[in-house]
Amino acid sequence: MSAVGSARSNLIGGQAYCPTCRSAAAIITDHQQGNELCGRCGLVLQSRIISEEQEWRTFSNSDKGDTGQDRNRVGDKTDEWFDGSAGGTAMIGGDRALMRTHEAATSMQGRDRLLKTAFGNLSKIKGDFNLKDVIMERCKEIAAVLLESDQLKGKSGWKEMLAVVYLACREAGTTRTLKELVEPYPNVTVAELGRTVNRLKKAITVAKAGSSDGALANYGGTTADTPAHLVKRYAGQLLGGLGRAKQTQVEMLAADICVRASEQVTKGYRPSSLASACLYMALQLYDVDTRTTIPVSEIASVAKTSEGTVRGCYKDLRPLARYVVPTNVSPPPPKTIDQLSKN
């Protein structure tokens, strides 16, 4: 039997039951129609009830005959970095003072607005340089703590986020040079980014001293952009065609040369220039043709420097070959230091 209208269910011991057939086990709640009814006699016990389930707003594949599995929840997804400011209610018309009060109470907090801008810029940078997720998560940690301690002073633009990426990469040992980072961003110069990096280094020290959440507890400064770190990345980009075994040999020898060259070369070359010269030397020792197979111009291109700079640095490094090339390499390279070119 079906009843027209609505009848309130009765309660016995806190459990609802149908007042007509006295059944408690047959109470059915229809969340789609907003009704509560008796499954035995069909009496509508309540209508227009409020569902407490998750609200869904779209079924994007429903027009394709799918079962509606691709559904989207109402509101933004919860993000651990934000203070729960997702979602809200828009008020149209009405009392203007009430609208201002409502907007003040429900608008995204200032910190969250800055974080949203900062993280958006970080996502763009991640895509430009194919950064790993672990590095990006570290960037978010650093940016969040700096914003929380007011060390960014409301700045979350490209310079600041490039500097955060630079510091996070150095901390992880995945070095990125200043010149490399600014290349896709013509409005940011190497000098500007360098000044921003130095400012953020000091800000991190201040934030670390006042941080209570431990996000910077393990931050003990960043590892230097050493030539040994850089040469491994350059080798990874250039030596793939040599075969795995030879690539590893050249890379390890170049890194060893870099460590020794950093102590021997007194002229103030950039780490990228010194790394390029050391790689050039290692390639020669392993009898790789640096005119056709891996020319100096390709080394310079990967290092974001000029061919003349690479050759100039190598020219200063060449007389020190007996001091910078290790003698305990096993197996030894095919060529000796006496067979190295002079330029």
TrEMBL record:
Q: Which UniProt keywords apply?
A: Metal-binding, Repeat, Transcription, Transcription regulation, Zinc, Zinc-finger
Keyword Transit peptide in the entry? The reply is no
Known Gene3D superfamilies for this protein?
A: 1.10.472.170, Cyclin-like
PROSITE patterns according to UniProt: ZF_TFIIB
The Swiss-Prot or TrEMBL record annotates one GO molecular function as: TBP-class protein binding
Highest taxon listed in the record's lineage: Eukaryota
What processes in GO biological process is this protein linked to?
A: transcription preinitiation complex assembly
Give Gene Ontology CC terms: nucleus; transcription preinitiation complex
Indicate, by first and last residue, each region the UniProt record lists as having compositional bias (Basic and acidic residues). 63-80
Domain TFIIB-type residues, every copy: 14-46
- Signal peptide positions are none
Q: Which PANTHER family match?
A: TRANSCRIPTION INITIATION FACTOR IIB, TRANSCRIPTION INITIATION FACTOR IIB-RELATED
What is the name listed in the Swiss-Prot or TrEMBL entry for this protein?
General transcription factor TFIIB
- Positions of region (Disordered): 57-80
The answer to whether the entry has keyword ATP-binding is: no
